[in-house]
Amino acid sequence: MIPGARLVMLGRQGAGKGTQCIRLSHHYVVPHISTGDILRAAVREQTEFGLKAKAFMQEGNLLPDDVILGIINERLERDDTRTRGFILDGFPRTVGQATTLMEITAPRCIDLVVDLVVPTEVVLARLAGRRVCTDCGANYSVERPPKFGWVCDSCRGDVVQRADDTTEAIERRLAIYERETAPLTAWFTERDLLATVDGLGDPDEVSARLFSVIDQRREQHR
Ligand code: ADP
User: Fold this and answer.
1) Which region, left, alpha or beta, applies to residue 4 given φ > 0 means left and ψ of -120 to 50 means alpha?
2) Is 197:210 a contact under the CB 8 Å cutoff?
3) pLDDT at site 3
4) Which atom in ligand 1 lies closest to the alpha carbon of residue 91?
5) Among 6, 12, 40, 173, the one annotated catalytic
6) Cβ of 62 below 6 Å from ligand 1
7) Distance between CA 129 and CA 140 in Å, rounded?
8) In the chain, domain spans
9) What is the predicted pLDDT for the residue at 34?
10) Residue 114: burial class (beta carbons within 10 Å; 0-12, 13-18, 19+)
11) Which residue's C-alpha comes closest to atom 6 of ligand 1?
């Protein structure tokens, strides 16, 4: 049996976290937990909570920590994460969220935090052309569209531009990333949990780099 994994993916907007987390999730047979995807589903379903979340998201602001922590707590309690582990995408984004993550996952905590690094000028170009499946969250772009029309290759969902991929919201999200989330790389390094991976190049090459650092870590901790 493939052993499970407990992973966190950090990286700026447009670094390729979503694409790579889906691949990691298939490779290690571990659920991909994307807070952005969970929130977008709530917005689509127009629940009371979804309507509140929408305002924060469209402006590119973070939701309050207690709201996100409620979502994560509930998701980490399900059977699949209990047995297989998790790949967290979009969480934690603040030192407060990271501290709580360590508490709620103790004593096993996490195997590894990967920082997927891509320079700002590259992410800006990627975000401008990014298109996303509204159902499964798969990422496409104007250069790499789905095979048939704007319909997802994997689940046949609609592939669209995200409501928060506007110039203003992108700038705000990147600024918040630098201020709130980038300090987490030092925070996880101090806890000997961080690996840095170059996110430039072909998606298959980036996946190979990720598999390599994760497998290395698993070997060390066997
Ligand atoms: P991106 O990384 O491109 O900003 P995500 O899909 O990860 O996009 O998240 C979209 C939005 O959802 C964020 O801009 C924010 O409003 C909200 N969100 C997602 N994760 C968190 C989190 N951990 N804490 C607070 N807000 C979050």
Assistant:
1) beta
2) yes
3) 84
4) 23
5) 173
6) yes
7) 8
8) 5-117+194-220
9) 96
10) buried
11) 36
Model pLDDT, residue 11: 97
- Does the annotation mark 131 as catalytic? no
User: Which superfamily does CATH assign the domain made up of 5-117+194-220 to?
Assistant: P-loop containing nucleotide triphosphate hydrolases (3.40.50.300)
Q: Which of 17, 54, 126, 131 is catalytic?
A: 17
| Any atom of ligand 1 within 6 Å of the Cβ of 32 | no
pLDDT at 107: 80
Closest CA to 114 of 180, 62, 189, 183: 189
Spell out, as residue ranges, where the chain has pLDDT lower than 50.
Answer: none
* Residue among 62, 73, 160, 162 whose CB has most ligand 1 atoms within 8 A, to mutate: 62
Kindly give, in sequence order, each residue whose CB lies less than 8 Å from that of residue 69, ignoring residues fewer than 6 positions away. 97, 100
**pTM exceeds cut of 0.85:** yes
Q: Check if 130 is active-site.
A: yes
Active site residue 17: yes
Tens digit of pLDDT for each residue in 125-160? 899 999 999 888 888 999 999 999 999 999 999 999
Q: Is the CB of 57 under 6 A from ligand 1?
A: yes
Amino acid 190: pLDDT: 97
pLDDT of residue 2: 80
Nearest atom within ligand 1 for CA of residue 14: 3
